[in-house]
Amino acid sequence: MNYVYLDYAASAPMRTEALYAEKTYEASPIAGVNPNSLHSLGRQAARELDSARSVIANAVGGKFRSPDVIFCSGGTEGNNLSVLGMAEGIRNKDHKRNVVVFSAIEHDSVLDLAPVLREKGFEVRIVQPNRQGKIEGSVLEGLLDQSVALVSVMYANNETGVIQPVAELARITHRAGALFHTDAVQAFGRICLEVTDVDALTIAAHKIGGPLGIAAVLMRSKVPFQAQSYGGGQESGRRHGTQDVRGALAFAAATRWCQDNLTQTQEIVSMRANKVYETLCSSPKIKPTTAAYAGTDHMPGTVSIMVPSMDSETLILKLDQAGYEVSAGSACSSGSLNASHVLTAMGISRNEALGSLRITFDERVSESDLNAFCTTLLRIVG
User: pTM for the complete prediction?
Assistant: First the structure.
């Protein structure tokens, strides 16, 4: 069967440019060379690694510099490293700051740090979204005081596609004397980021057509930080372990392509996503998770819907049998469904949340494949 892959938010297929960068590296004299070695090939590998940092820093913008780029293994490690390292670093500098604030709609790689932080003596506060999945500045401001060390709010939600007012939230956080981190894994390479006021952010290669196993944290040099690993002092002592030069170069290649084509692809993908929404939600049995699913407040290429009369697992399996690969906003395990923490935090009922679906794609998915998918899903629901 020829499958139509519609789960790009989980991981996007590798781009030709990234694959070519990997092959070029493998055929070069520095293939397998440690970029921390002092000999000529080691120094050459280090220069290639730094060139990848430069591409990524320029694409992120916000006055981030090449030395601010910390390579790591994935978005989960990047979020762990950022939140734990920054929280401990800030508290080491000012012992009164022992509170960390998360939004209730963060990825598990952030929310699962709450008990870890509490064991380390931090207080964790949770800011709730409104019904449209957005964190409001006034609500965040009500949780901030002089004891807050760090606030972490994701740039775009991985389930609903809702884009948060990160620039505003960062400025509010700074007025309280705290630092701001954002998980930008879903947003980077797909929309233009506004991160001038952000202290640190996490991005990942495999979301934009780069390889699995390589990601980056961009952290400003002024940010207090406590390393969360120990070893050879790589990445300026912030993340230890020999760097993956091949992965970094492929990451940079995918980044460069996305940056060069951002405006065009964003327009194409937004148009196709809006048409999918309109087609599917014409059925009384399907509804969007948010009322405002188009425009500047929503990620292009992320379609988030609910089928209250069915459960996600059944829908996913039926679509898989028909050749369409999608995911849910809920976790399926051991034959039982847990309602999405994102949707329930938005005030969506458990019954509706259990029927959620997430359809995600970029410009490489054709309009005809999306039309065929819509026809199939409407038939299944009907």
Answer: 0.95
